[in-house]
Design goal:
Length: 247
């Protein structure tokens, strides 16, 4: 089956599962050695259907959180849409994909995801942050609530209603409460003086702004954004390793 994947996380996961991915987005950068010769047909929010048609795909893979509804409505070939907004939904979607592609690797990943969901939740330690890359300001205590930042100007966070929030919860973090329904709320850092800020390495390049972040004087660290947000193969491996450490 020839597949065009418009979801970076799924592109990586399908390629590692041996699925024939013939088209991708410009953000599908993993695994580097396997994506090199796969044509780019757009981004996660835009697509050239002419380029897709040239590839003669049997299926276009979409996700409700990653791609706009218009992409599904305008898709000229059959599509398969997932909806991943938590570890629980990831497990279910891996089963759906595994059955659809009759792929043992994807079904095995669904079992691994179920094992993660059933594993004991570790105690969060603000001085030993999973996916840690660099300190902005090391905290003096360990009972911080967490704010996971994905953007600046304006500051935007990922709430507990997102996949990132689900990963943080599984790792034992207590996430600052935001108004219900706000998946990616805009906020002011000074409103959370006792929070531990996790600055994601993507989509905003916080790691390149470390000097500016240090000047804010708030507890926080740069973390690997791919580990927290790339659902599928990458975050499953990340969580397996982190949960194994805690045992």
């Amino acid at each position: 089956m020839r597949v065009v994947s418009m979801v970076p996380s799924w592109t990586e996961t399908l390629l590692k599962a041996g699925v024939n991915v013939v088209g991708r987005t410009r953000y599908c950068i993993h695994p580097p050695k396997l994506i090199t010769n796969i044509p780019i047909v757009g981004g996660t929010k835009d697509v050239s259907w002419d380029l897709v048609a040239d590839l003669k795909p049997d299926l276009v893979l979409l996700d409700q959180e990653e791609n706009p509804l218009e992409m599904a409505e305008e898709c000229p070939v059959p599509y398969f849409a997932t909806h991943v907004n938590s570890l629980e939904s990831l497990q279910k979607e891996l089963v759906r994909l595994g059955e659809h592609f009759e792929n043992a690797h994807l079904l095995e990943l669904s079992v691994q995801c179920l094992d993660i969901l059933e594993a004991p939740t570790p105690k969060w330690d603000s001085k030993k942050i999973p996916g840690f890359m660099e300190w902005v300001k090391m905290p003096t205590g360990s009972a911080h609530k967490v704010v996971y930042l994905i953007w600046r100007k304006p500051w935007m966070a990922a709430s507990k209603e997102t996949y990132i929030g689900s990963v943080l919860k599984k790792l034992g973090a207590e996430i600052v409460e935001f108004p219900e329904g706000e998946k990616y709320p805009v906020l002011e850092i000074e409103d959370y003086p006792e929070a531990l800020f996790l600055y994601s390495s993507e989509p905003y390049p916080f790691a390149k702004k470390i000097s500016d972040l240090k000047s804010l004087g708030v507890d926080g660290a740069i973390v690997n954004g791919e580990s927290y947000s790339w659902f599928g193969e990458r975050s499953i491996e990340f969580l397996k390793n982190e949960l194994l450490k805690s045992r």
